[in-house]
Amino acid sequence: MTIVSPQAQAVPLNPPSSGNNWQQILKEAVRDPAELCDLLNLPQHADSARRAAENFPVFVPRGFLKKIQPGDSQDPLLRQVLPLEAELQSPPGFSGDPVGDQPSALLPGLLQKYEGRVLMVTTGACAVHCRYCFRRDYPYDDSPPAPVVWQRALDRIAEDTSIQEVLLSGGDPLTVRDELLADLVKQLSRISHLRRLRIHSRLPIVIPERVTDSLLDWLSASRLTPIFVVHANHPRELDAEVLGALERLVEAGIPVLNQAVLLRGVNDRVSTLVDLCEKLIDARVFPYYLHQLDRVSGAAHFEVPVERGLELLGEIRKRLPGYAVPRYVQEQPGQLSKLPLG
Ligand SMILES: *Cc1c(COP(=O)(O)O)cnc(C)c1O
Ligand code: SF4
Fold first, then answer.
1. Distance in angstroms (rounded) separating the CA atoms of residues 252 and 244
2. Do 73 and 162 fall within a single domain?
3. Listed residues 64, 88, 112: the one ending a domain
4. Is the CB of residue 131 below 6 angstroms from any atom belonging to ligand 2?
5. Same-domain pairing of 80 and 207
6. Model confidence over 177-231: pLDDT tens digits?
7. How many Å lie between the centroid of ligand 2 and the Cα of residue 14?
8. How buried is residue 185: exposed, middle or buried, by Cβ count under 10 Å (0-12/13-18/19+)?
9. Residues lining ligand 1, Cβ inside 6 A
């Protein structure tokens, strides 16, 4: 297990100031499985959580915890963050790199799978550890920290005129502080063949305070067309604070999309998915992808069979306008795009 936990890495140290409240929130996130169980009144889960967390540490911002119903071990938000005994099993077909990230690395921290766009692993740190994450086994240690590696990625992008779009991903790029990101984006915007800048981040959902004025400034001031992709799986993740953060992005003129992962026990019901999509649309956020689970070791208990996924999609399509229906896709190594499932 080589993932760099935010404990060890990221959470950049910054002199405290009002706009950096989010860094304090990151520092105060729950990292101890026993504390997680204690706060949620689930003492019976503490032992198994501790064992399962040895492979992939717990990391949950306290604001996210507030949305979880204490004492309910089936809470769909809890299931995304609580390590379960089931993670220790890895049935056949589940592996450490199910989406073929390693073969697609152009450089450490720069991946290209699809034409015209590259993904920068801006940082290994996330603002929440999602138990189903396909990058839970990603060798982030091989991706040296921030600006030093970014330079090599920038040079490589500048050399290749076929690249039109850069995705900042990770980890979660928004665990990096705004001054560094603003500088990175400035350098990207100097590369004349680049047209678009995409940010993939779960931060507006788990720490809405992260959508600061300075973030909006560097994002909307760039010459590059911005696209912001957030990640929410369940309608209850979208409380008033999160909706406020999404509104700040939208009001700044930034197109916002959502990607979700189809997860057993979290969102594998028609009513849940419909509610999620409607809440997103009301917030002027477009459902983009509904991902079939990537078969990463430790996440087998989240898998929903594709046939069931297709059934769910068929049902939500009957209930929602076309623009509110996400594309149901699967990532398969070696493919030239994410594979549409139906
Ligand atoms: C998912 C992914 C993208 C983005 O794919 P889109 O279909 O454009 O959203 C780009 N690069 C990599 C490496 C990816 O995994
Ligand atoms: S799903 Fe996204 S936010 Fe969650 S652990 Fe994985 S990379 Fe981080």
1. 12
2. no
3. 88
4. no
5. no
6. 999 999 999 999 999 999 999 999 999 999 999 999 999 999 999 999 999 999 9
7. 23
8. buried
9. 111, 113-114, 117, 119, 167, 337-338
